[in-house]
């Protein structure tokens, strides 16, 4: 009889264990963005912590950014699962005719204005469903979107050291369960900064990667100390890559068309958005079509390649000029000012170009209970991450451009009942 009871009890405990629902930690996500970390940096530069996370987690052959391969559009595609044309952050600089206003990353009052941010970022989806979130920087996280902000968020301040950012996120993980976030972000810009200033092959990029890796080592040690390293999920990504720009690869675009025929031109070296005055679209288009060198192309909105999914937004300009990777579009006077800059490197780096270009590809590393160590997955588009994060958090996703079936190809089989590894 005693033996029988023991067997029943044993069976009961085993079945309880295998059917256990995931714990709070297993259903948590720390999303880490290393801005401008090109896929091809991963094995070119020393980054012991990053390599260890990759070895013990799931890695992708590449993560494809959305077009244009810029910071704000791509962070917000990662957060919402939407292409930029659908989430409204179509560029780092945006003009909206209805607001008659321009959005720039440096204009805090616009960055914090929810009117620009369409769709639903994962922290809003989470908060709506009672899941606490905390963002240590992420484009969009400073605005009330659908009236909702992360429970914990920070005003962007690039001067805060990478290690201070890590310490703050670790402190959030020490909060009592009722207020502790289950979705968190961390953001580092130093690798992108070095890539722009000195190019992707520079010793400065190597140093910036080593520095971010040290911050990650601090994070890993802090998670280990809290017994969280294998109990919560880390998703480490970048927003886009970086390509070398030799100093002579400049097109003085303002010399090739009559700027007075445009009501507004949003100048960036990698994409120029032209809003022609009434009746001037065709004339500007023809001017550029005949004068542009082979390294750049002018597009009417309807001519933009389908694969960019970059058409159906009133914020996308009627005319766009896009150069080949490694080329820059500049106004003559800006070009001259730039040439005269003291201490300027002859080689610089940039991004924003065609999202098919190999140098623009981003990274993905998933580490934690839902990710099978050592697994490699094929390249995928960053709009898939929103569904993945919602699934891990156990929340219902809002409508998005990702494919929910993709998530099943990434998660460890039987994930919903997965037990934390040691
Ligand atoms: P990009 O011009 O696309 O290379 O943008 C990268 C820069 O965006 C970084 O160096 C930061 O200075 C800036 N940045 C990143 N996140 C934010 C943010 N949340 N708010 C304002 N600026 C940001
Ligand atoms: Zn970026
Ligand atoms: Zn950048």
From TrEMBL:
Signal peptide location: 1-20
Molecular function (Gene Ontology), one example: hydrolase activity
The entry's keywords: Signal
UniProt KW rRNA-binding keyword: no
InterPro entries listed in its UniProt record: Alkaline_phosphatase_core_sf, Phosphodiest/P_Trfase
Name of the molecule in the record: Alkaline phosphatase family protein
